[in-house]
């Protein structure tokens, strides 16, 4: 078995009173969920080769999404605590100073969740069907009016245009083209999940799944593995190296070890596979996003519907290869007002859990709840900011008005 696992870095802030009461059926008490924030998970890329490939402007020697590199200078310390002034980043798309539109395909893979009894029989089946079209019709993939663009555009593009305002030509865009693919089914063994019932006692208002069990049903163990969601989609040609694939899961979050260490609403990563003659025998990188769709009123800070999806798409746009080379998208250490201490360009983590984290958008007959994002300039410790209007966050420019204080490694 050739599969690369690395330590997961998970930062979860739990309310002191939020302890799940769980009965023998696995059902949990709704009152405990209300106090828990939804967090993002940092996942090390996993796959079956640590090889090389090619990209035009960005990361060399990979077969993956179009991407470009940049750099900035700021006083800080690296992961070892040593002084560092020169930092590098890598972003999806083409360089903003070139202008033009980059179109990125986004296969949406709905995930059906089967919860099993102890004997392996199916106990509950939770279907993704009701959330698919609302996701496609959301501001992540449909145009809306934003101050960063002359013409209506998508949520992610609007944020990227605000971020690269000083460099971008008026016609520079990075657009996401969704396409719904085959629904894939995961089966979760008894003892590896809990659930929050609907008002009538049926399943499920919310499903909580053990994170390692989730990885087992998501990621292939070999390049020909079709028993996992990503393996099956790759081998069917429904996930390619040129895509940013979304695994869309209804009413689902992840926990670490016990449901009390919860709740992870999403993550972005990539699966890497060996190249072949079709791509010059260079490493293939399949960028992927897990996003749980949550019902309104379960979690605090307004988290609902596309909150996790928006968070992870924007982070994937700004850090598609999740700092995997130890250079790109490593930043000076920063400390957010939500207590997050990190040294990477994870634009959603800075703001997640803020009282004003949500930027509500009403369109296509629904009010959506995407998350505001921190801009590159916040990670650059750049004062003044050269983003749109001198902002550090967008679309709500008032969410971040101050930079982090300079930090030592680990914010010690």
How does this structure look, described?
- With 412 residues, the chain is an alpha/beta fold.
- It has one domain.
- It contains 7 helices and 20 strands.
- The strands form 5 sheets. Strands 1, 2, 5, 6, 7, 8, 9, 10, 11, 12, 13 and 14 form a 12-stranded mixed sheet that branches. A two-stranded antiparallel sheet has the order 3-4.
Stretches with pLDDT under 50, minimum 5 residues:
1-24, 48-55
Strand content: 25-35%
**Percent helix:** 10-25%
- Largest sheet, described in full? 12 strands, mixed
Mean pLDDT figure = 88
Number of domains: 1
Q: Please state the overall shape, judged from the principal axes of the Cα atoms.
A: globular
Whole-angstrom Rg: 20 Å
Instruction: Give the CA-CA distance, first to last residue.
Output: 39 Å
Number of helices: 7
Pattern of helices and strands = HEEEEEEHHEEEEHHEEEEHEEEEEHE
Given helix and strand content, the structural type is: alpha/beta
Give the tally of β-strands. 20
Entry summary:
The chain is an alpha/beta fold. Helix content is 13%, strand content 31%. The strands form five sheets. Strands 1, 2, 5, 6, 7, 8, 9, 10, 11, 12, 13 and 14 form a twelve-stranded mixed beta sheet that branches. A two-stranded antiparallel sheet has the order 3-4. A two-stranded antiparallel ribbon has the order 15-16.
């Amino acid at each position: 078995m050739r599969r690369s696992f690395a330590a997961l870095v998970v930062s979860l802030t739990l309310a002191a009173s939020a302890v799940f009461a769980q009965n023998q059926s696995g059902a949990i008490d709704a009152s405990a969920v209300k106090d828990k924030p939804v967090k993002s998970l940092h996942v090390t890329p996993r796959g079956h080769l640590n090889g090389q490939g090619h990209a035009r402007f960005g990361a060399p020697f990979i077969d993956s999404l179009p991407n470009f590199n940049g750099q900035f200078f700021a006083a800080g310390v690296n992961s070892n605590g040593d002084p560092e002034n020169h930092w590098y980043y890598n972003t999806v798309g083409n360089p903003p100073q070139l202008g033009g539109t980059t179109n990125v395909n986004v296969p949406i893979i709905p995930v059906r969740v089967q919860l099993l009894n102890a004997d392996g029989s199916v106990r509950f089946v939770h279907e993704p069907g009701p959330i698919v079209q609302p996701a496609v019709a959301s501001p992540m993939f449909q145009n809306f009016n934003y101050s960063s663009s002359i013409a209506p555009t998508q949520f992610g593009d609007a944020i990227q245009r605000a971020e690269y305002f000083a460099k971008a030509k008026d016609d520079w865009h990075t657009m996401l083209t969704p396409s719904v693919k085959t629904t894939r089914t995961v089966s979760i063994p008894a003892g590896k999940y809990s659930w929050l019932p609907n008002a009538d006692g049926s399943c499920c208002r919310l499903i909580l799944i053990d994170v390692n069990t989730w990885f087992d049903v998501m990621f292939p163990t070999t390049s020909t593995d079709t028993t996992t969601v990503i393996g099956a989609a790759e081998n069917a040609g429904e996930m390619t190296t040129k895509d940013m694939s979304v695994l869309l899961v209804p009413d689902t979050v992840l926990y670490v070890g016990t449901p009390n260490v919860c709740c992870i609403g999403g993550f972005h990563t990539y699966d890497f596979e060996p190249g072949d003659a079709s791509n010059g025998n260079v490493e293939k990188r399949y960028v992927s996003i897990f996003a749980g769709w949550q019902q309104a009123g379960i979690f605090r800070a307004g988290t609902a519907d596309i909150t996790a999806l928006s968070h992870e798409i924007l982070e994937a746009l700004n850090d598609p290869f999740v700092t995997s080379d130890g250079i790109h998208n490593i930043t000076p250490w920063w400390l957010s007002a939500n207590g997050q201490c990190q040294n990477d360009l994870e634009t959603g983590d800075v703001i997640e859990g803020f009282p004003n984290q949500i930027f509500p958008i009403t369109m296509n007959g629904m009010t959506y709840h995407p998350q505001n994002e921190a801009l590159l300039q916040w990670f650059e410790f750049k004062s003044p900011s050269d983003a749109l209007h001198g902002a550090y966050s967008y679309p709500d420019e008032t969410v971040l008005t101050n930079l982090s204080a300079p930090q030592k490694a680990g914010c010690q």
